[in-house]
Amino acid sequence: MSDEPRRHPLFMLLVALCALATAPFLFIGSRPIVVLGLPVWLWSSIGFTVALSLLTAWGILRYWRDETEAADDDPGGAA
Known about the structure:
Elements: H1 9-21, E1 34-35, E2 38-39, H2 40-63, H3 67-73
Antiparallel strand pairs: 1-2
């Protein structure tokens, strides 16, 4: 593997921010607001968890490639 997600600082920053945002630190001490039967902090945590999952999946598909896939995409046919 020639490229890894950890070598891309912006990607890693976004992963770290999403991971931190899954914990409802901003809602500590506030009065819970309920939307559709669940508190807003839970909706926020669910949203950031989904965002983290999507970002991780995108990073894997974008940066991690199998050696054989890379050779198949090479127009010169070098393997």
